[in-house]
Specification:
CATH class: Mainly Beta
CATH topology: Thrombin, subunit H
Structural class: mainly beta
Number of helices: 3
Largest sheet: 6 strands, antiparallel, barrel
Low-confidence stretches: 176-203, 286-291
Shape: globular
């Protein structure tokens, strides 16, 4: 039974000619499964219409590198250790300086519309992953730390019914094009979206810079009794959902994937691949090719 959501990114950093793929999800999902001794798998759609369940038993998970003023984060990343060629999923390009347009950071704020893509545990798809889209708006900016069961967190609040299974889902600020060509449906672009021509006439025409990666879902506020609200991570839990979700900022994902240890690791791989290429051996930034 699927437990939570992950999404796929590509690094893009100065001095590195290769882009490296990673799986991103919420740290509390990974730590809970590892603590309980459960095996971790990643279920992926393939271009041939089938699905592949890949073991992550050998995955090396990296978490946010620092804890500032006792504030917690909830980000986990691991390199994608198999071929990406057969995958029917989009990758989010994640430049080390974040998303910009014309060299300027995108601006967003209270009330702006957001959307999330992730797992609906009651209908996840038997033959293929069937992600759901949830739409809402930014309800509060990260002005003061939010009290969660993991500790105080810098986070956004969103007005949307986050539910169990959506932990780790990416959240985007929705900035659609000013006009849609006649006869063309609006394009929705996010991690896990399936490039299926039954639904979109030109799925590969997605312009990723049109969206801002706000962050990933940590959990939501539940009413466990009528006297107070409590935070529940979106990998489990039951209660009366208040409709307010907690979002780990995208900057925390950037800080995680571009921490010095991972940057050094990617540069070492690039150096090795350059050496292989100079010796006529070829090479790509992935250790296996088993899909």
């Amino acid at each position: 039974m699927p437990r939570a959501t992950g999404f796929l990114i590509l690094t893009q950093e100065a001095g590195n000619e290769w882009r490296f793929p990673y799986i991103v999800t919420a740290e509390h999902v990974i730590s809970a499964l590892l603590t309980a001794g459960h095996s971790i798998f990643c279920r992926l759609n393939l271009n041939d219409g089938t699905v592949r369940t890949e073991s992550l038993a050998e995955a090396h998970w990296s978490y946010h590198p620092t804890e500032k003023d006792d504030l917690r984060t909830d980000v986990a990343v691991t390199p994608l250790m198999f071929s990406t060629d057969a995958l029917a999923h989009d990758f989010i390009p994640l430049p080390e300086n974040g998303f910009t347009v014309g060299g300027q950071r995108k601006r967003f704020g209270l009330g702006d519309q957001i959307f999330a893509i992730g797992l609906f545990k009651n209908h996840f798809g038997q033959d293929r992953n069937i992600p759901i889209i949830r739409i809402g708006n930014i309800a509060a900016m990260p002005e003061e730390p939010i009290n969660t069961r993991l500790g105080l967190m810098d986070a956004y609040l969103i007005e949307a019914r986050s539910i169990a299974g959506l932990s780790g889902s990416p959240i985007f600020v929705d900035e659609p094009p000013s006009a849609t060509p006649v006869g063309q449906p609006p394009m929705i672009s996010a991690a896990g979206i399936i490039r299926d021509t039954r639904f979109y006439s030109d799925p590969d025409a997605v312009e990723w810079t049109q969206y801002h990666l706000l962050g990933l879902i940590h959990g939501h506020f539940d009413i466990r009794n009528l006297e107070y609200d409590s935070v529940v991570e979106d990998s489990g839990g039951f209660g009366i959902n208040t409709g307010i979700g907690i979002i780990i900022p995208g900057e925390k994902i950037l800080e995680t994937v571009y921490q010095p240890d991972l940057v050094s690791e990617r540069l070492a791989i690039q150096k090795s691949l350059r050496q292989q290429n100079s010796e006529g051996m070829g090479g790509e930034p992935r250790p296996t090719d088993d899909l």
